[in-house]
């Protein structure tokens, strides 16, 4: 966790990088910290700094070439025909300072918006980046407030 004077009730973290199919996103490392970032189990869709989001969207769409695109749904603008469970989804990893990383499965990366459409479960951020609960699902997350650390372990509740 990182300290912040913005709001004592929130858990601030430092996003340090993202990869799609093992390749880092084509953005400057400073872009990841261009906005304060919190982790919030009450927010469904993860919000990223716009430059990071745009690079993620482009990389995921490129990795899913051959999958038909679908119309945007509300704030979700990178959408595909089909359900997440039936699509070939690229490996995506989210890294944080201190070495923690989330290796996202299809259900952590995409959200089914109806019976024939799934969308990237990320959107551009306005004033703060937020790691939402879609990315937290299936992970055990430990908030060690005394030591100012958050830890992630795969294979939590499913």
From TrEMBL:
GO terms for biological process: proteolysis. Gene3D superfamilies: Acid Proteases. It comes from the Eukaryota. InterPro entries: Aspartic_peptidase_A1, PEPTIDASE_A1, Peptidase_aspartic_dom_sf, TAXi_C. GO terms for molecular function: aspartic-type endopeptidase activity. Residues 1-153 form the Peptidase A1 domain. Belongs to the peptidase A1 family. This is Peptidase A1 domain-containing protein. It comes from Hordeum vulgare subsp. vulgare.
């Amino acid at each position: 966790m990182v300290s912040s004077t913005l709001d004592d009730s929130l858990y601030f973290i430092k996003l340090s990088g993202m990869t799609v199919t093992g390749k880092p996103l084509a953005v400057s490392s400073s872009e990841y910290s261009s906005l304060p970032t919190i982790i919030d189990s009450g927010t469904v869709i993860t919000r990223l700094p716009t430059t990071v989001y745009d690079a993620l969207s482009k990389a995921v769409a490129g990795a899913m070439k051959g999958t038909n695109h679908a119309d945007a749904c509300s704030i979700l603008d990178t959408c595909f025909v089909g359900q997440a469970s039936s699509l070939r989804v690229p490996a995506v990893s989210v890294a944080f300072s201190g070495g923690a990383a989330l290796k996202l499965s299809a259900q952590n990366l995409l959200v089914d918006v109806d019976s024939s459409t799934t969308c990237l479960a990320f959107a551009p951020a306005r004033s703060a980046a937020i790691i939402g609960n879609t990315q937290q699902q299936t992970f055990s997350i430990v908030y060690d407030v005394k030591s100012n650390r958050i830890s992630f372990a795969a294979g939590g509740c499913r």
